[in-house]
Structure formats: C-alpha cells, structure tokens
Description:
Layout: H1 3-14, E1 30-34, E2 42-49, H2 50-56, E3 70-74, H3 75-80, H4 125-133, H5 143-157, H6 164-181, H7 193-209, H8 223-235, H9 245-252, H10 266-269, E4 276-287, H11 296-314, E5 322-331, E6 336-345, H12 361-373, E7 379-381, E8 384-394, E9 402-407, H13 412-422, E10 438-443, E11 449-457, H14 458-464, E12 478-482, H15 483-488
Antiparallel strand pairs: 1-2, 2-3, 4-6, 4-8, 5-6, 7-8, 8-9, 10-11, 11-12
Helix pairs in contact: 5-6, 5-7, 6-7, 7-9
Amino acid sequence: MLALTFILLLVVELGWAAKCDKRYGPAGTVDCIQSRSYNNEYQWATCLTDAYIKQKNNQKPGCEDRFATYCWYECMLEVHSKDAGSVTNDCSCTPSNPTSYPNTLTPTTLLPQECYSPPGDSCDWYRNCLERKYPCEATSNGSAIRYAEHFCKLYDQNFAKFSLSGKKWVNGVRKCLQVSLVPLLRPWVDPTCKEIRERAFASHTPCYLNPGNGAPSVCGLDCSDYLQIFWTIKGSFDVKVDTFWESLKGMWNIGEKCGLYANIQKCYRELKDGPVRVIKLKILLRSRRSTDNLPESDAQSRFAAGVGSAIASALQWKSDVMDWLAYTGRVEDTKNMEIVFLLADKKALGITITSTPSVNFNQTIQEFALAVKQGNLPSKVDGHNVWVKSLASCSDKACTSTQTLADSDKPLTFILLLVVELGWAAKCDKRYGPAGTVDCIQSRSYNNEYQWATCLTDAYIKQKNNQKPGCEDRFATYCWYECMLEVHSKDAGSVTNDCSCTPSNPTSYPNTLTPTTLLPQRVL
C-alpha cells in the first residue's frame, strides 16, 4: 500500500541491504534492528529526517549525528515515546523474516518520500499522503482528517487576523496534529478509518494544551485570541458543521483542562457583554428510522446542525455578521433533548469586515424567545419532527447555569398533525370540544381566504384577548378560534402564509410535522 512496503519487498527479492544514508536517506526505508536500551529485543526502525524527529520530540535532539539529515528512528520512540524498556507487539519484528511484520500489505500506491517525514506544516500531506493510503474521506470517519486539514490551512489563510500569540499557537498545533498521525503510514500498522479518526481525536487535547516547539498552551491565550481562532476555523467549513462537531467540541471545551486562573477561563465568565452568547433549547421530537449508518454521536451532531439551520433560516439571521453552532446537550430519552446554541458576532471578533452593523444579541434572542413562545419554530430534520418547548440563556460558556426566557404556549403545527395523522373529525362541540381540534375554514372578514382555526375554550380565548369577549355564543365552553386572531391578533384582512391552508388538502401547510406525543386537552 505504500512505498515502505515496496522497499521491503525489494530488499527481500533483490537482496538489498536496508540503509539510511545520513545525507540522502531515503525517508521511509525500514529495518528490523536490535538495541540494548530495549533489552536487546528487535523492533522496527524507519529512516526519517532530523527535522521530523525534532518536531516529533518537541525540539529535543534528533539524530545522534548532529550533522546528519537522515537517521534511524525506532518504533518505540516514534509511537510510544519510550527510549528504553521492552518492545511492544506493535513494534516488534523478526530479523530473519523481515516481511513477517503484523498487517503485511501489498502496496497499491507509492507515496513520495516527504510523506513519511513531513515538517508538520505541509497541509497537502493529509490529502496527498494519508488519504491516498487510507481513503476515508467519503465516510463519516473522514471528518477528523478534514478538520485537521482545515486547521493546518488556518495559519496561512488567516495569518493577518491573529495576534502574535495566536499565530504561534495555531502554527504549533497544526504541526503537532500532523506529526501525531504520521506513524500511521508505517508498514507495520493497518488501521481502519474508525481507528484513524479515534487517533486524530486523541491528539487534539494534548496538542491544544502542549503544542510544543515554543508555542504557548491554549490555556495562556487571551479570550479574544481563542474565540477568534475557534470561530474562524468553524467558519472555514463551506458546509454545515454536521459531524465536524465531534472535532470542534474538543477545542470548545478545552478550558475545562486549564487551571482556574488561566487566561482562557475569562471566556467562560465574560459572556454577558462579549461577542459570543450561549443559549439552550429543550425540544420534543419523534424519531423516524434513519437510513444513515452513523455512530450515535455523529447522528446527534447532524440532527442538532439541522435544527440550527432550520431556526437560522426561520429567524433570518444575517450570516455576513453572525455565525452559530448547535450541538446536543443532555439527552433525557429518545423524545426529549437539549440543544445548545452558540451565537457569535463575527464583526466584533474581527473575523469579517462589513458595513452591516454588529449583531444586536438582545434583539436576536428576544425574537428567538418570541418565536418559541408562540410555537412558530417547528421543523423537520433528518427524519425527526421537532417541537421547541423552551429557550434559556446561559450565564457561562459551558451552559451549567441557565435562566428561562420562553416556554412554548402550544405547538400549533404540532397539533395540526394530530388531526391529520390520527384521523380526527373536524368538530368543535360548544360543550365538549375537544380542545385542539383544527379545521380549515373560510371567513368574509379575511377576504374569503382560508385559514386554520382551533377549537379552544372560551376561558383561554378571553385570556388571550385580555378579557375581551371570547366565544360569540356566550353560553359556549368551546368554539373555533382563527389562527389570524390567535397568532397575529388580526380580526380582518389577508391571511398570512403561516395561517393559510387549502381545504382540499388539509395537510399542505408549512412545516408539516408528525406528532410524537398526544397532549391532554388542558395543554391546548
């Protein structure tokens, strides 16, 4: 599968001796060597550049010969950072049978020398080397590799935006992330796409905290640097974050690994007037069988991203100045879930330059709360039908302390589906109701246009109308209440799209949802 294996086969077939010339290499040559430091046991060693070894060792001495460009690098050092002790099975070899290492592969692609010993800042390495050997990009597991590639390009494409500390950190991290994956190209390993993803995830936190080579820790970054870097890389994805959240969340939650007095902790405490806000939704959903074969964490990330996209579209958030990220919080059961929303002012963060005013978070969140309260945010995402039940603001970045901003009075569209799916007859008995029955009716007051009406109690209608008359029949307990009156407080005029219906096709209203739970009449 790669040049190293090709070289090994040539060694055996043609009788070449495995060599590593200190000036010419070549990088990628392997040999089975014995060392006293490892109890005289045999292990694999790879011919690599002095520069790569120093990067891997956090600028500690590379080759023993300080004039060498290439030298042997033991598997135990490269993979396990162990300079002595017993050789583990994954590094062990038998000198009398050099091709009998675990996971022997027949080469399918010859990789260039630079693949085996990169300097850490070659962003094309992910596509030209790792992806060529392990074509995982088309799978959900490929998201971790694409994230690392995006992070690598962050330094070159956004250099001018970052402070000196920010530049050093990004440059250090991108090298650390890449170097941590290079050992996957060695011929004695044959990871699955899932294992590559897990290896990539496992490298994130150590690289953020200690990128090495003189770069600062993420804990020492100013809050402004940290937030700017986070939202810049989030914005670099030209599609919705989707399954990339599993990669992003490691950086979002990294402050938990820092000390109480670390600079980054300010990002947790200074949300109220900052360029980023955090809010939380509680939702009720009905799941349908998904055709996507995704891990549960990825499925939840995709669902949260879909809900976020639907809400951003419904509330007409301005993408030129505002960015957002949605991810699943606490999942109570299969029907009840929390989704955390991160809202960012890109202009205030210095990510974008535009004449559009900065985000008015107070107004944005008030509009969000009103839409939740009125039940105007139903959406259908990835086979899930959703009702947003409540909205709360978070006083800290981790959203551990919240304040409720809105509870949904009732899910109007959600209720309409009960009629369609369960086959209820459109009736509203003045004594028995039932509350929640809906019908598509025509009224002269609304230019003879059709709109939805709901069977509701006289008491509710009076409460809604601030104690003005409720049902026309003053002896009625239940009566029809038009959507235009209930939602928009309009007793005449044209019917708006959110209230409009077609009597011949009662299911053809906007945001059609399938109900997940039958609600008692008192809720309606």
